[in-house]
Amino acid sequence: MKYIADVPVSDLKGKRVLVRAGLDVPLDKNGNVSDVFRIKQAAKTLRFLSEAGAKVIVLSHIGRKPEETNEPVARALLTEVHITYIPDLLGSAAHQAVAVMKDGEILLLENLRRDEREAGNDDGFARELATLGDIYVDDAFSVAHRAHASIVGIPKYLPGYAGILMHDEVDILTKARNPDHPSLAILGGAKFETKSPLIKMLLETYDHLFVTGALANDVFKANGLPVGISLISKELPTSEVLSHPHFLAPIDVTVERPDKQAMVKKPEAVVADDKIVDIGPDSVALIAPHIAAAKFILWNGPTGLYEDGFVSYTQGIAELIAKSGARVVIGGGDTIAVIEDSETHFGPNVFLSTGGGAMLEFLLDGTLPGVDALNQ
């Protein structure tokens, strides 16, 4: 995979560089970006190219609705790099803006998914996008698992390179597939049926795998324990997983009662109208020695329902990890958001991934469609 930072600055100056960035960020009720993590990460490549004298044209998407706009993204980006936002994608406004660019300038174009051909990986759409640049840089690791036109189509028509973020993600997650020992993986989220192959891989690769979040509910259910009205997956873990010597699960839970009161219980004490919303302090104590002893820690997914405010045990684990000397990889949007809210201070041994689903798919397969497109 070719790396844009390896290209001589003299070969970038004056070139139109088409950057696919991962700027799908959450917005608050006022339409402002509420989490700038991906903004800050994306700015590294944009700043590098601008300082090299390239003409930088940024492509990205936001949200799930085609009417959503990159305008709030542009406002957030301005805190990191000087950009000009063009509310157009392939029309005359976009082409004219690109035509008059000066060296070092950065343009952000409109939401890619306003055109349905993006998600459809339409070859004609990719070819049209490619006319905007001389060089293509993929820095959107967070969507590299999507075979969309801007991810896998454009590299067919332009020389393709990995951006700084993409390069770092691939390099570090490749190492996470073969961790130093002792190692600990922490996996949260839901939908056991989609995570089952990864869980089996992690059990063979890591010394311990601690399953948390809604996945833990599936463990309780499979073990014949009550789960009340908690979220359960379509598929439950098998005895092969549950009896694996590397497998760990919570030993206490936080439940929410119908009156919205929360309390900590042992799993066997959960009643019919309880909703499991987090782990408990004994579960944190269970994995604390493994965190302290680990040389490598992989973590994706908070322990509780982040959107409902159950964050204290996730933050507690983050603080334990921050004090460890392990090399650490943490990913998943909710996980990163909880950590940033806690103001936990990590050292250079901790890598925060911009990928959620992309991170998990890369860990399982060792590649992604967007990575393959740059390697071809």
Secondary-structure blueprint:
Blueprint: H1 9-12, E1 16-20, H2 37-51, E2 55-59, H3 71-77, E3 84-85, H4 92-99, E4 106-108, H5 123-130, E5 135-138, H6 149-153, E6 160-162, H7 164-176, E7 183-187, H8 192-205, E8 208-211, H9 214-222, H10 239-242, E9 247-248, E10 253-256, E11 262-265, E12 275-279, H11 281-293, E13 296-300, H12 312-323, E14 327-331, H13 333-342, E15 350-352, H14 357-365, H15 369-375
Parallel strand pairs: 1-2, 1-5, 2-4, 3-4, 5-6, 7-8, 7-13, 8-9, 13-14, 14-15
Antiparallel strand pairs: 10-11, 10-12
Question: Could you explain the architecture of this structure?
Answer:
This protein folds into 2 domains: 4-166 and 369-375, Rossmann fold (3-Layer(aba) Sandwich); 177-345, Phosphoglycerate kinase, N-terminal domain (Rossmann fold, 3-Layer(aba) Sandwich), CATH 3.40.50.1260. It is 37% helix and 16% strand. It has 15 helices and 15 strands. The chain has helices at 9-12, 37-51, 71-77, 92-99, 123-130, 149-153, 164-176, 192-205, 214-222, 239-242, 281-293, 312-323, 333-342, 357-365, 369-375, and strands at 16-20, 55-59, 84-85, 106-108, 135-138, 160-162, 183-187, 208-211, 247-248, 253-256, 262-265, 275-279, 296-300, 327-331, 350-352. It is elongated, with a radius of gyration of 22 Å.
Sheet of most strands: 6 strands, parallel
Radius of gyration: 22 Å
CA distance, first residue to last residue: 8 Å
Please indicate the percent range of residues in DSSP E strands (runs of 2 or more): 15-25%
Helix content: 25-40%
